Fold G/U mismatch-specific DNA glycosylase.
Amino acid sequence: MPRITAAELEAARDRLVPDVIADGLSVLFCGINPGLMTAATGHHFARPGNRFWPVLHASGFTARQLKPAEQDELLAHGLGITNVAARATARANELSDEEFREGGRILREKVEHYRPHWLAVAGVTAYRTAFGDRRARIGAQDRVIGDTRIWALPNPSGLNAHWTLQTMAAEYARLRTAAASPGS
């Protein structure tokens, strides 16, 4: 991947990044919002310190570690990616609670349309704000959207230091096991 300049990153602010999505996915992963590297490249979870791609592989969702530029290969695995909030920012704390709530409304509509078996929100704080569920914890949620179950995952950002690659992979693997179970 060519080196992205600071000017190119700043120019990517507020850009929208297309979802990787299809009808009836096993798991639709949902980030908080695109970072500037994601917006600059058009590839989800593109910042080198982000652990999404290593965790996805370590948890058994993919046979090898995909690169952000290979994101469309997720569809063949029954997986996809979207975000709670659509606009790109340098940090998630640049988003308002209203943007999270509006993103939650749009996300519910998206889930009702595409009907994934699981919606996996990577960031429990974002999930709490978007869905108005202050007591949510990491793991399966009681809430459903139609027939879609919801799982709150740890945020794979390198800034989320209290989750290691190993502990995060274990949590993602719990979701993978649940998604593979009959009737899930």
